[in-house]
Amino acid sequence: MSIRWQRHERASNAKTAAAAGKQTLVVAENLLADLSKGDSRGRAVYDGYGSCPLTVEKGKIILAEFG
To answer: Can you give the pTM of this predicted structure?
Structure first.
């Protein structure tokens, strides 16, 4: 098994917990598929989800989500 990086237009640099949670599921599914030889499932793909907290006033934020 190898760790591979494929250049992808949806490669993420998202650093929020919400984005990391989505990416974790993709990584886990792909690792399990690699470990089980002969697995015919499709590869999981990160959908580009991200979120960003935006301050709207002192002490208040909203969470902007992007997908």
So the answer is: 0.57
